[in-house]
Specification:
The chain is mainly α. It is built from six helices and four strands. It has helices at residues 2-5, 14-22, 29-37, 55-71, 94-120, 140-160; strands spanning 73-75, 81-84, 123-125, 136-138. The chain has a two-stranded antiparallel sheet. Strands 3-4 form a two-stranded antiparallel ribbon. Helix 4 runs antiparallel to helix 5 and helix 5 (94-120) runs antiparallel to helix 6. The longest helix is centred in the middle third of the chain and has 27 residues, at 94-120.
């Protein structure tokens, strides 16, 4: 993208392109965390759970965030790759890396709780019987638990990235 938009020059010959790709382009932990912060600037992380209009998309956003933190592959809801970021494995500070691992595990707990609530009926389709209907109903206790789990994830990320300031859209 930088080549086409910003005019950054890189080689066209295969052997030179391979060398270019293998060059060390290490980012600072601050740069990595700044890129990761973008993962949390989306409605799945600031819309109150009881007002979430599409719970399957919420679950997908959580899954996409887990993938991006672990692999560096940042995808949109529809599966196309938005971009690549450094993964948590590329952080140099072991303490920050552990904090990001905790964030990833918290997201996995959030997703697992969501799936368990669907199985138990605490989260259920609206009843219109349309297979692609995004409207779900959730019990107040389910909304509270998901809200608390998500809040814990965001606090963990803030602990890892003190410059992160959540979107306070609501």
């Amino acid at each position: 993208m930088k080549r086409f938009v910003g005019g950054e020059i890189f080689p066209d010959a295969e052997n030179q392109l391979t060398k270019f790709a293998l060059e060390d382009r290490t980012l600072s932990d601050g740069d990595i965390l700044a890129a990761m912060a973008k993962l949390f600037d989306r409605p799945a992380f600031y819309t109150p759970i009881h007002q979430e209009s599409n719970l399957p998309d919420f679950k997908q956003a959580v899954s996409d965030t887990i993938q991006a933190l672990g692999t560096g592959i940042w995808k949109a809801r529809d599966g196309h790759v938005i971009g690549r970021i450094a993964s948590r494995h590329e952080l140099k500070d072991p303490g920050t890396s552990r904090k990001l691992q905790s964030v990833e595990m918290g997201l996995a707990r959030l997703r697992a709780a969501f799936e368990e609530m669907v199985k138990s009926g605490d989260i259920r389709p609206c009843g219109c019987n349309l297979p692609e209907c995004p409207t779900y109903q959730l019990s107040p206790s389910a909304a509270d638990e998901l809200q608390q789990l998500r809040e814990a994830v965001l606090k963990d990320f803030e602990s890892a990235n003190p410059t992160f300031h959540r979107s306070r859209k609501w």
